[in-house]
Amino acid sequence: MNGPLCMGQTMRALHPDMLAMKRPVLIVFDLDGTLTDSEDLGRQLFKRVFARLGFGEISDALADSFNGPSSDEVCRIMGIEDRKDEYNALIDEIETELVRTQGIVFPGVTEMLRSLAPHAHLAILTNGSPAYCSACIEEYGFAPYISLQAGFASGVTKAMRIGMWERELGVRRVIVVGDRRTDITNARAAGAYAIGVTFGMGSVEELMDADSLCDSAQEVTRACLRVIAEV
């Protein structure tokens, strides 16, 4: 979920041998709003979590506003910094349950990953918890295509994580695919090619600084292959 994460290290691929393959490009995908249609899932998640924390029923608007910020930010906004461990435990519990019962993959995403995997290292970088990320990879059948996965770690930005992966793999080009302004900002900070997807939770206006805008997974595939061909 584009919400809390507690992961302080890179998660190795479910298929570590993929890391050793000589590919010059790394494609980093956001998860929620990019690979998965999780807006309603996120709304239910935060409403359930804060009900369990004793806040009663929070509004849809407030729940939706937490779909993006890290756990540090959400806990600060709600004044529960001292309950962060409890909050994160509830996120893990409820989020992974919702993935398995209500998760939705955007049309064409699996085919996109299958088409791109032979040409680049594929990674998922999310502000969701490690348990949530792993549950998505398992539930949606992404495992054969994903080389790296990581979630939020306090003090480590997405741009920093992308830089770590870039150095680790020795790639010559990085492509970042996301649906929010922060995805584009982190792509820029990492010196990556930025693709904004217009079918996610972000508005077209907030994605205007992207190098490419794509209206479907098929368009993302074509845009990535164009960049790969130039490397």
TL;DR?
The protein is α/β, with parallel strands linked by helices and 231 residues long. The chain folds into two domains: 11-38 and 104-229, 3-Layer(aba) Sandwich (Rossmann fold), CATH 3.40.50.1000; 39-102. It contains ten helices and seven strands.
Structure description:
This protein is α/β, with parallel strands linked by helices and about 230 residues long. It has 2 domains: about 10-40 and about 105-230, Rossmann fold (3-Layer(aba) Sandwich); about 40-100. About 45% of the residues lie in helices and about 15% in strands. The protein has 10 helices and 7 strands. The protein has helices at about 15-20, 40-50, 60-65, 70-80, 85-100, 110-115, 130-140, 160-170, 180-190, 215-230; strands at about 10, 25-30, 120-125, 150, 175-180, 195, 210-215. Strands 1-4-3-2-5-6-7 form a 7-stranded mixed β-sheet, sandwiched between helices. Helix 5 (about 85-100) packs parallel to helix 7 (about 130-140). The protein is globular. The chain starts with 10 loop residues before the first strand and ends with a helix. Residues about 1-15 have low confidence and may be disordered.
